[in-house]
């Protein structure tokens, strides 16, 4: 049975269990491994590799705030042009937009 555990939860559990696993004897390793597999749902060989490998530093999410490329008026105009072009893909819409700007003299 596979439990739904988040990826971050699995990483945190690995960080707690791995040092114990490396220090344990063969019988204890088997018990720790069985509990880890039950908790995470990983395959046995993959779990062994994770638990016996060197410690991996827990990474925090990288937040990169970016400014908006287009303001609200440009976004609304793009939506109108996209709707007029029958909601085609962006690669096919780009040449259509260039043709519109050339016609209206906004090059």
Walk me through this protein's architecture.
The chain is mostly helical and 107 residues long. The chain has helices at 7-23, 26-40, 44-52, 72-84, 90-103.
What is the gist of this entry?
This protein is mostly helical. Helices cover 64% and strands 0% of the residues. It contains five helices and no strands.
Spans where pLDDT lies below 50 across 5 or more residues: none
Quaternary structure state of the chains depicted: single chain
Compute the number of structural domains: 2
Structural class: mainly alpha
Largest sheet: none
Gyration radius over CA: 26 Å
Instruction: Report the β-strand fraction as a percent range.
Output: under 5%
Order of helices and strands: HHHHH
How helical, in percent, are the residues?
55-70%
Topology, number of strands: 0
Shape: rod-shaped
Summed over residues and divided by their number, the pLDDT gives a mean of 84
Distance between the termini: 60 Å
Total helices: the number is 5
């Amino acid at each position: 049975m596979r439990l739904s555990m988040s990826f971050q939860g699995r990483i945190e559990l690995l960080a707690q269990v791995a040092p114990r696993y490396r220090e344990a004897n063969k019988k204890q390793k088997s018990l720790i491994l069985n509990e880890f597999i039950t908790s995470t749902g990983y395959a046995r060989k993959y779990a062994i590799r994770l638990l016996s490998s060197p410690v991996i530093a827990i990474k925090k999410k990288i937040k990169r705030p970016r400014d908006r490329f287009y303001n609200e008026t440009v976004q609304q105009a793009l939506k109108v042009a996209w709707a007029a072009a029958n909601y085609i893909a962006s690669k096919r819409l780009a040449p259509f937009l260039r043709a519109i700007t050339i016609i209206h003299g906004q090059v």
